């Protein structure tokens, strides 16, 4: 009885070892099959697993968890029932807010949109970044314009809208900035700073649009301050 038990224990141990070996072989076989399948997909033309695969589409719409359109990508961007604005068909990417209002645009600039109304942009075909508020009104951006001008602007949410701007103009070899009054009745910027190839000026203007204080440096002469009352400012404006 004792010898019979010993034989059975040895057989059991040997069986366990064989099962362990088979288990290892099965795992190795599965890994080999997976590797071969992956390699075949990698080499198969037209599959998305190839690193040089190009996905072509005229438009793409990304939705949120509720199925609402939130990102529109295309040339032009696809039409969307969820988008508040229906008049734009620019080439680029439009990010929509939860209400459907435009919040960010990348690529070809859409036409100017403020207070629910659309206005034609000046400067030709422009590309850049446009920022919008909760209601879809433009509040600023950066762009290169077809006229040879690149600029950055930040806008107010109410008239006179334009608040701060930076600009480089190739046609005039000019670089400068402006800060505008918050009064919609003001006729000109409150402050200007600009430079060209050989001079620089800083100017403070009145709400009447006339220059009241100006610092000029032409690159060779000493800096010159000029202060104007209303009458003198009118003469300066007429004979700059």
Describe the structure in your own words:
With 240 residues, the chain is an alpha+beta fold. It has a domain of 51 residues. The chain is 21% helix and 37% strand. It contains 2 helices and 15 strands. A 13-stranded antiparallel beta sheet has the order 1-2-3-4-7-8-9-10-11-12-13-14-15. Strands 5-6 form a two-stranded antiparallel sheet. It is elongated and about 105 Å long. The N terminus is likely disordered.
Short overview:
This protein is of the alpha+beta class and 240 residues long.
Please tag this protein with its features:
single chain; 240 residues; alpha+beta; 13-stranded antiparallel β-sheet; two-stranded antiparallel ribbon; 21% helix; elongated; disordered N terminus
Beta-strand percentage range: 35-45%
Radius of gyration: 34 Å
Described by the principal axes of the CA atoms, the overall outline is elongated
Number of strands: 15
Strand order of the largest sheet: 1-2-3-4-7-8-9-10-11-12-13-14-15
Order of helices and strands: HEEEEEEEEEEEEEEEH
Oligomer: single chain
The helical percent reads 10-25%
Specify the biggest β-sheet.
13 strands, antiparallel
Number of helices: 2
Spans of at least 5 consecutive residues with low confidence:
1-7
Return the average pLDDT rounded to an integer: 82
Question: What class, by secondary structure content?
Answer: alpha+beta
What is the topology?
Blueprint: H1 2-43, E1 59-63, E2 69-74, E3 92-96, E4 102-108, E5 112-114, E6 117-119, E7 127-132, E8 138-145, E9 149-155, E10 162-169, E11 174-180, E12 189-195, E13 200-205, E14 211-217, E15 224-227, H2 230-238
